[in-house]
Amino acid sequence: MQQNYRAGFACFVGRPNAGKSTLTNAIVGQKIAITSAKPQTTRHTVRGVVHRTDAQLVLVDTPGLHRPRTLLGERLNDLVRSTWSEVDVIGLCLPADEEIGRGDRFISGEIAELKATLVAVVTKTDLVDRATLAKRLLAVQELGEFADIVPVSAVSGEQVGTLVDVMIGHLPASPQLYPDDMLTDEPEHVLMAELIREAALEGVRDELPHSIAVLVEEVLVEDSGLTKVYADIYVERSSQKAIVIGHQASRLKDVGTRARRAIEDLVGGRVYLDLHVRVAKDWQRDPKQLRRLGF
Ligand SMILES: Nc1nc2c(ncn2[C@@H]2O[C@H](COP(=O)(O)OP(=O)(O)OP(=O)(O)O)[C@@H](O)[C@H]2O)c(=O)[nH]1
């Protein structure tokens, strides 16, 4: 293991419209944020990996936290908390152009007990003058215990690099989590794999919600502009393989069509998608396979 190497997971939380997606995109350099998977099956949806020679910062998505009114709401909140408990750094996003409100206090209270390092991120600083920003920073200080408070503008790019430095500073010493050939400068691979996984889960979510993983093996862009995507869908047992493929491969064809359309939206051009279903026995229990599959 390289000395002084740090790696770990981080996520952004905050009330709706706080600027989480825009900030994530600014950090991973990817304009398109796919709508997140249905919350029930969202575990870590990797949004992007920041590679540095001395560190790797993995940004994951979490579904939003709600005031629980139903059992489903409670379950969702449990899921959010379990995701939060697995990340090393949580960035609480608070828009500079709005007063701190009840929603912010609620979320801030919820994350206060976690083991993750909390960083307050004052977003959209380009929308306010210095006096307002100063006032907001003071208010944030009163809101909770934060390891750092970083003002940032995802739109102008101001302080985005600093925020990444700060977050990396709070990651544990760890070997690299993802191979750089898989993800470096290519968060698209991950997004494509997520889109394929979403399509493959459609209709069989109840049967195999956590048994499907997708690995994009290769992406080739031809001179004609056609993007060729070669991907494998992994299941844990051959019975699951039969479900995913369907009668006379009818289901797999549907999955392919839906995934291809979604990837076409992602890359903004024509896509050829080559899909194979493979059995990786008990991949969920095998750390090596898990890493290979992006978990
Ligand atoms: N001026 C400015 N606008 C921003 C900035 N960041 C986000 N916005 C805008 O704020 C709005 C909300 O941003 P999102 O990134 O969608 O917020 P979010 O927290 O992901 O929202 P939800 O998905 O609803 O939770 C969008 O209209 C963005 O364009 C910023 O740094 N500056």
TrEMBL record:
<dbReference type="InterPro" id="IPR009019">
    <property type="entry name" value="KH_sf_prok-type"/>
</dbReference>
<dbReference type="Pfam" id="PF01926">
    <property type="entry name" value="MMR_HSR1"/>
</dbReference>
<dbReference type="Pfam" id="PF07650">
    <property type="entry name" value="KH_2"/>
</dbReference>
<dbReference type="InterPro" id="IPR004044">
    <property type="entry name" value="KH_dom_type_2"/>
</dbReference>
<dbReference type="InterPro" id="IPR006073">
    <property type="entry name" value="GTP-bd"/>
</dbReference>
<feature type="binding site">
    <location>
        <begin position="123"/>
        <end position="126"/>
    </location>
    <ligand>
        <name>GTP</name>
    </ligand>
</feature>
<comment type="function">
    <text>An essential GTPase that binds both GDP and GTP, with rapid nucleotide exchange. Plays a role in 16S rRNA processing and 30S ribosomal subunit biogenesis and possibly also in cell cycle regulation and energy metabolism.</text>
</comment>
<keyword id="KW-0694">RNA-binding</keyword>
<protein>
    <recommendedName>
        <fullName>GTPase Era</fullName>
    </recommendedName>
</protein>
<dbReference type="InterPro" id="IPR030388">
    <property type="entry name" value="G_ERA_dom"/>
</dbReference>
<dbReference type="GO" id="GO:0005886">
    <property type="term" value="C:plasma membrane"/>
</dbReference>
<dbReference type="GO" id="GO:0005525">
    <property type="term" value="F:GTP binding"/>
</dbReference>
<feature type="domain" description="Era-type G">
    <location>
        <begin position="6"/>
        <end position="173"/>
    </location>
</feature>
<dbReference type="InterPro" id="IPR027417">
    <property type="entry name" value="P-loop_NTPase"/>
</dbReference>
<feature type="binding site">
    <location>
        <begin position="61"/>
        <end position="65"/>
    </location>
    <ligand>
        <name>GTP</name>
    </ligand>
</feature>
<feature type="region of interest" description="G3">
    <location>
        <begin position="61"/>
        <end position="64"/>
    </location>
</feature>
<keyword id="KW-1003">Cell membrane</keyword>
<feature type="domain" description="KH type-2">
    <location>
        <begin position="204"/>
        <end position="281"/>
    </location>
</feature>
<keyword id="KW-0690">Ribosome biogenesis</keyword>
<feature type="region of interest" description="G4">
    <location>
        <begin position="123"/>
        <end position="126"/>
    </location>
</feature>
<dbReference type="InterPro" id="IPR015946">
    <property type="entry name" value="KH_dom-like_a/b"/>
</dbReference>
<keyword id="KW-0699">rRNA-binding</keyword>
<feature type="binding site">
    <location>
        <begin position="14"/>
        <end position="21"/>
    </location>
    <ligand>
        <name>GTP</name>
    </ligand>
</feature>
<dbReference type="GO" id="GO:0003924">
    <property type="term" value="F:GTPase activity"/>
</dbReference>
<keyword id="KW-0963">Cytoplasm</keyword>
<keyword id="KW-0342">GTP-binding</keyword>
<dbReference type="GO" id="GO:0005829">
    <property type="term" value="C:cytosol"/>
</dbReference>
<feature type="region of interest" description="G2">
    <location>
        <begin position="40"/>
        <end position="44"/>
    </location>
</feature>
<comment type="similarity">
    <text>Belongs to the TRAFAC class TrmE-Era-EngA-EngB-Septin-like GTPase superfamily. Era GTPase family.</text>
</comment>
<feature type="region of interest" description="G5">
    <location>
        <begin position="152"/>
        <end position="154"/>
    </location>
</feature>
<comment type="subunit">
    <text>Monomer.</text>
</comment>
<keyword id="KW-0547">Nucleotide-binding</keyword>
<dbReference type="InterPro" id="IPR005225">
    <property type="entry name" value="Small_GTP-bd"/>
</dbReference>
<dbReference type="InterPro" id="IPR005662">
    <property type="entry name" value="GTPase_Era-like"/>
</dbReference>
<keyword id="KW-0472">Membrane</keyword>
<feature type="region of interest" description="G1">
    <location>
        <begin position="14"/>
        <end position="21"/>
    </location>
</feature>
<dbReference type="GO" id="GO:0000028">
    <property type="term" value="P:ribosomal small subunit assembly"/>
</dbReference>
<dbReference type="GO" id="GO:0070181">
    <property type="term" value="F:small ribosomal subunit rRNA binding"/>
</dbReference>
<dbReference type="GO" id="GO:0043024">
    <property type="term" value="F:ribosomal small subunit binding"/>
</dbReference>
